[in-house]
Amino acid sequence: MGMTIAEKILAAHCDQDTVHPGEIIMARLDLALGNDITAPLAIKTFGESGAAEVFDKEKIVLVCDHFVPNKDIRSAQQCLMIRNFARDQKITNFFDVGKMGIEHVLLPEQGMVLPGELVIGADSHTCTYGALGSFATGVGSTDLAAAMISGKAWFRVPPTILFRYRGEMNKWVGGKDLILYTIGKIGVSGAHYAVMEFTGPVISNLSMDGDRKSVV
User: Fold this and answer.
1) Domain end: 121, 138, 156, which one?
2) Which CATH number is 26's domain given?
3) Strand pairing of 135-138 and 118-121?
4) Which residues contact 5 (CB under 8 A, 6 or more apart)?
5) Alpha-carbon distance 24 to 8, whole Å?
6) Does residue 215 belong to any structural domain of this protein?
7) Are 56 and 83 in contact (CB under 8 A)?
8) Which of 4, 20, 31, 94 is deepest in the core (most CB within 10 A)?
9) What is the DSSP-derived secondary structure letter of residue 129?
């Protein structure tokens, strides 16, 4: 059997012809994301490492998402830390007050995640970008720090589970209902450290925002 889309993306980013589930690889990154909760620890680790500059100022994205407007002094300090780092490192893609938003909506809206790309983010919802045909996954803040320095991250190549949906969904039933139904079937750990690949006529009839095209 040929490689899955996830395996093809990972292989392309570590200059290998093939990769296999369970294999440990070091792969180049197209984008590394941090927000106002997770980036401060990454920035602190970055400084402690002795690194002078990020690997690529255009491939790091920092979004003030959760604490803007700031709710207290501590959250204001978190955002100030990111703001100073973005200025010192001349980060191109820094989204502050007036430009920020929900990070996982913002990046696709800005055209920053494309099919075939390899993206990490210090946030568990980074896998959202899989809907755009990329390989995207959440990491810890220290992993983000290492990525900001090297432009790479290590991965254990995950297995892929294929989900094929047939038939038609009833009116007012959308993508959110579909994934909640799926989670109910496989359990919250049903695809632990695995890629979920979705296909079938039901998926083909979903728009990118997950609602049925026929529902107005």
Assistant:
1) 156
2) 3.30.499.10
3) parallel
4) 133, 135, 197
5) 15
6) no
7) no
8) 31
9) G
Largest CA distance in the chain: 57
Whole-angstrom distance, CA of residue 115 vs CA of residue 133:
4
The reply to whether 22 and 92 lie within a common domain is yes
What does each of the 216 residues of the chain score in pLDDT, given as a tens digit?
689 999 999 999 999 999 999 999 999 999 999 999 999 999 999 999 999 999 999 999 999 988 878 889 998 999 999 999 999 999 999 999 888 888 999 999 999 999 999 999 999 999 999 999 999 999 999 999 999 999 999 999 999 999 999 998 888 888 889 999 999 999 989 999 999 999 999 998 888 776 555 444
What is residue 132's DSSP assignment? G
Same domain, 73 and 31: yes
> Domain tally for the chain?
2
Task: Please check whether residues 172 and 147 belong to one and the same domain.
Answer: no
At residue 77, φ and ψ (nearest 5 deg) are -70, -35
DSSP 31-67: EEEEETTTHHHHHHHHHHHT--S-S-TTSEEEE--TT
35 occurs within a structural domain: yes
Query: Mapping DSSP to helix (H, G, I), strand (E, B) and coil, where does residue 12 land?
Result: helix
The DSSP 8-state label assigned to residue 81 in this structure reads H
In this structure, the answer to whether residues 112 and 148 fall within a common structural domain is: yes
Q: Is residue 213 part of a domain?
A: no
Whole-model pTM above 0.85?
A: yes
Instruction: Encode 71-101: b = buried (16+ Cβ within 10 Å), e = exposed.
Output: eeeebeebbebbbebbeebebebbbeeeebe
Q: What's the domain range around 65?
A: 5-156
Residues 92 and 182 in one domain: no
